[in-house]
């Protein structure tokens, strides 16, 4: 099989159509074209064509992943999920993840640290909710626990719970004023529990606010 013509695809950036025996045979990226050494007059066989197709698929998956992490750091799971949505196989997605890690473009520990810092700077939440969110991002349990120990102490969790409870009372002042102290206390405790704080932290915090 002979490459008879190579044309740039007009409406697709950095894409080329490779004609084999005068018929459209391959559509590859500019990077694949160069790496595979394709040129008019080159002879190909089925095995080589399959290798080129696989190489181009890896290149496309890699570019999708790099573009995805250019906006903000991502976890390995987010990369795999993104590539799956784009139609790439899980096996290929995991290969890309390994490649990104080797290039120091992907690091789940650094991602987890950034994620927890950002969440703590935003709307306060307890350790349990932070743990769930990390696990949802695909961060391993042991890694999650390591990061939570680094950033969430008993003192700052208690402080975060108090900040959230006071804010809740101010925002819902009319509702809370109509409740008796016990009902008010229960309402606040339930709210803190829903934000991932432990029963102990929620109860102590609310008691310190509502005497």
| Order of strands across the main sheet | 1-2-3
The rough form would be described as elongated
Major β-sheet, in short?
3 strands, antiparallel
Distance between the termini: 86 Å
Q: Count of DSSP helices?
A: 11
Would you tell me the overall average pLDDT? 86
- Percent in helix: 55-70%
Derived structural class? mainly alpha
Whole-number radius of gyration?
27 Å
Number of extended strands: 3
Low-confidence stretches: none
Please provide the ordered H/E string of secondary-structure elements: EEEHHHHHHHHHHH
Strand content: 5-15%
Give a quick summary of the entry.
With 211 residues, the chain is mainly alpha-helical. The chain contains 11 helices and 3 strands, in the order βββααααααααααα. 65% of the residues lie in helices and 9% in strands.
Can you characterise this structure?
By secondary structure, the chain is mainly α. Among the domains are: 108-151; 159-209. 65% of the residues lie in helices and 9% in strands. The chain contains 11 helices and 3 strands; from the N terminus they run βββααααααααααα. A 3-stranded antiparallel sheet has the order 1-2-3. A hairpin with a 6-residue loop joins strand 1 (3-8) and strand 2 (15-20). The longest helix has 26 residues, at 46-71. The radius of gyration is 27 Å and the shape is elongated. The termini are far apart.
